[in-house]
């Protein structure tokens, strides 16, 4: 059954839902937690941690589409309403009128968002130099070694152990940037959105701009969203919605936000090997023009060729309903 069968009914706007929804996706370790903490200074905005809304909606739609009882006596309008209601129900405890739902797969699911949440889909996409992302990841892994009593090892090394791959900084980078890794999946989601013609639904926020000229960067975000600008405080930043990082990721400070906005990251040349630095070249597909050429190249590279970034494994990405699970794209 075509999923549009459940998506052809009244739009969220026609049904008069109370909250306004925007989205955040982009790349890991690119300032999404910092950006959310800043946006939460605006009393109109709520920007929480990575959300299960997209994966919950997707799984329920797939269940209806594949359930023989539903096919025996279909009620498409009611099924549509159930799926559509998830976003509002999940944020039912939030008083703010503007919600930013964060999931790195949103750029690959823009038609889905249009069908069930809002026809005017706008996605904020924090991005950063690939070598800086890997540097941030490796630096974080080094300062969070496994200790006796920890509930788990970090989520990167955990996967390398399962794949029987030796653990070192190069193999960590290969996995992170490979097709099943947090960075590779996020890049692939951006590629999908561009390929489907939704580039103008995305607003790319460069990490360097966010930390060097934060108010100007935020003003551009407000302009993209069509919202009134707000004067932010960059010397007293707080993450109001801190996740349980050790339980979820095996890392103590995955989403730690410093109180003052400033650059603190080490140089990639001090952390990464020449082998990894070489393989980072040209992966900044969101900066390249024309987009079609770079997207075609990377759409083949990221989802199909683990060996391209040195990962040699038979493991397949986790799937839900035959498609890559949104929840496999982890937060920064």
Describe this structure in words.
The protein has 332 residues and is α/β, with parallel strands linked by helices. It has one domain (3-321): P-loop containing nucleotide triphosphate hydrolases (Rossmann fold, 3-Layer(aba) Sandwich), CATH 3.40.50.300. The chain has helices spanning 12-15, 32-39, 53-66, 68-72, 76-90, 110-116, 130-142, 155-162, 169-177, 182-195, 207-212, 214-225, 245-249, 268-271, 274-279, 291-304; strands at residues 20-24, 45-50, 98-102, 123-127, 202-206, 319-320, 323-324. Helix 3 packs antiparallel against helix 5 and helix 10 crosses helix 16 (291-304).
Q: Which helices and strands appear, and what pairs or packs with what?
A:
Layout: H1 12-15, E1 20-24, H2 32-39, E2 45-50, H3 53-66, H4 68-72, H5 76-90, E3 98-102, H6 110-116, E4 123-127, H7 130-142, H8 155-162, H9 169-177, H10 182-195, E5 202-206, H11 207-212, H12 214-225, H13 245-249, H14 268-271, H15 274-279, H16 291-304, E6 319-320, E7 323-324
Parallel strand pairs: 1-3, 1-4, 2-3, 4-5
Antiparallel strand pairs: 6-7
Give a short synopsis of this structure:
This protein is an alpha/beta fold and 332 residues long.
């Amino acid at each position: 059954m075509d999923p549009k069968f459940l998506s052809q009914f009244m739009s969220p706007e026609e049904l008069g839902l109370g909250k306004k929804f925007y989205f955040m996706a982009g790349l890991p370790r690119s300032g999404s937690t910092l950006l959310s903490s800043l946006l939460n200074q605006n009393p109109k905005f709520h920007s929480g941690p990575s959300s299960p809304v997209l994966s919950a909606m997707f799984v329920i739609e797939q269940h209806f589409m594949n359930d023989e009882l539903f096919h025996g006596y279909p009620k498409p309008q009611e099924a549509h309403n159930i799926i559509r209601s998830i976003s509002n129900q999940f944020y039912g405890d939030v008083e703010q009128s503007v919600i930013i739902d964060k999931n790195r797969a949103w750029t690959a699911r823009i038609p889905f968002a249009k069908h069930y949440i809002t026809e005017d889909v706008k996605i904020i996409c924090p991005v950063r130099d690939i070598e800086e992302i890997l540097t941030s990841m490796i630096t974080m892994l080094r300062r969070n070694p496994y200790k006796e009593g920890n509930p788990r090892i970090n989520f990167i090394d955990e996967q390398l152990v399962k794949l029987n791959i030796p653990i070192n900084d190069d193999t960590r980078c290969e996995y992170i940037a490979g097709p099943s890794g947090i960075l590779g999946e996020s890049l692939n989601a951006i590629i999908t959105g561009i390929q489907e013609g939704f580039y103008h639904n995305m607003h790319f926020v460069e990490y360097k701009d966010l930390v060097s000229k934060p108010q100007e960067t935020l003003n551009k975000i407000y302009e993209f969203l069509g919202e009134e600008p707000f004067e932010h405080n960059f010397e007293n930043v707080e993450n109001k919605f801190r996740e349980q990082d050790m339980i979820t990721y095996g890392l103590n400070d995955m989403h730690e936000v410093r109180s003052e906005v400033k650059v603190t990251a080490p140089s990639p040349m001090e952390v990464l090997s020449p082998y990894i630095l070489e393989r980072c070249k040209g992966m900044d597909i969101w900066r390249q023009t024309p987009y079609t050429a770079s997207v075609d190249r990377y759409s083949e590279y990221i989802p199909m060729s683990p060996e391209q970034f040195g990962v040699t494994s038979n493991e397949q990405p986790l799937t839900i309903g035959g498609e890559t699970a949104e929840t496999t794209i982890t937060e920064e």
